[in-house]
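ligand=adenosine-5'-diphosphate
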Amino acid sequence: MKILVLNCGSSSVKYKVYEVDGVNQELASGMVERIGTKNADLKCSCCFAHDPRCAARMFGEPGKLDVPDHRAAVNMICDLLKSDHCTAVKGIDDIAGIGHRVVHGGEEFAESVLIDDEVIEGIERCARLAPLHNPPALLGIRACAEIFSGKPQVAVFDTAFHRSIPEKAYRYGIPDVLYRQHGIRKYGFHGTSHRYASHEAAKLLKKPIEHTRIVSCHLGNGSSITAVQGGKSIDTTMGLTPLAGVIMGTRPGDLDPFIPLFMIKEMKMSVQEVDEALNKRSGFEGICNHHDVREIEELARAGDEDCQLALDMFAYRAARFIGGTVMALSGCDAIVFTAGIGQNDPYMRARILKYATHMGIKIDPERNSRNERMITTDDSEVPVFVIPANEELVIARDTAAIVGVRSKKPAVA
Ligand code: ADP
C-alpha cells in the first residue's frame, strides 16, 4: 500500500512516499520551500532518480518558482507524482491515503485519526495552542481534500503519544481555573519520534516494549526528553508549548516563569517582542549568536568562549533532565538518542553521558564515533542506543493501518 506523508510548515511542505506493506520502503521524498513567494524552491529526490532535474523541467528553475500558497505547493507535488518521470507511483490512484503530521492535538486526540469535518474542527480548536503549527497543517489537509478528492486522509499528532502522562506530571502548580477553563497543562511534543525511538530500543533490548523503561532523547533544533514506561509516555520535558525543557536552537527551555513578566514590566517590551525573543532569539542563538550545533562546535574548537558556554549549558541541562527522567521511571533499561544532534553528534553524546558515569554507563568511544546502534561497552550497566529519527515512517504506518481498516469495512448500503 502506497502512502503519501505530508509535513506542512508555515512556509514549507515536506513530503515522502512509502510502500508500507511488509517492506516499509521509502520511494520518494522532497520539499517545497519559501511558499508564499516568487522565489520558492522545489527539491525532489523522487524515485531517487536517474534524472534529478525532472522537477526543474516541469516547473522551472528551483529558487525562482511562484508558489503563492500551500494549495499550489501540494498541487506541484501532485503533478510530480503524476508525471511519467515518477517511478515511485503509477499515477495518483496508486496512492491509498495521505498522512499528515499535525503538531497539536490538545486533549481531544489521543491517537491518529481518519480526517473528517469533525476532526478538522478539532484541529482548528487546538490551533490556539499551536498558532504557528496547526494552521499550515490545516491548509495542507484542505488542499489535499480538493486535489486528491476522495482520498482518505489521516492526522498523526505530535502530542498524542503523551496523552498517557498522568495528571501529577501534566498539571502545573497554577490556579486550577487555568487548566479547567483554558487547558493550560503539559502536552508534550515530538511524540511520534519518541514513540518510534522507544519501540526500536525495545527491539534492540530484545524485550517486549511492555516490560521496558526507556529514556528517549530527541535532540535536534527542537529538543525534548521523554520517560517511556511500557511503551507509554509518562513524562516529557516540553510543556504547553515546545519552548519548555532543554535549551534549543532558538528557544530557551525551562525558565523562571517571572522572566517574561520582567521583560514586559521592567524592560517595557511588548508581548510580541517577548514572544519573538523567546521563540527566535533564545537558546543557542541567544547565548552565542548561532543556532546550528555543527557551526557552534566548530567555533568552540577555534576558541569562541560563548560557543563553548552554549555547548556546556546544553550538555549540562540535557544531563539534568535525563537524571530526572530516570527518577520518573524508577530506573531505566536504555537511553536512546535521536534527531539531528542525538543521532549524529558523538561529541555531544559523550559530553552529556559523562554526567552518567555514576550509573555505570560506559561509552565505547569507537562505537560512539561511528554512530553505531549501541554506543556503550558490552558491560555498561545501561545500554545507550542511537536511533535515526523516522517520524514519517510512523505517520505512513498509522495512515496505512487506518486506511486499511477503512477499506475492509463493508460498504454502507
Ligand atoms: P529539526 O528539529 O529542525 O528537525 P534536526 O533534528 O534536523 O532539527 O536537528 C538539527 C540540529 O542537528 C542542528 O543544530 C544541526 O547542527 C545538528 N546536527 C546535524 N548533524 C550534526 C552533526 N553531524 N554533528 C553535530 N550536530 C549536527
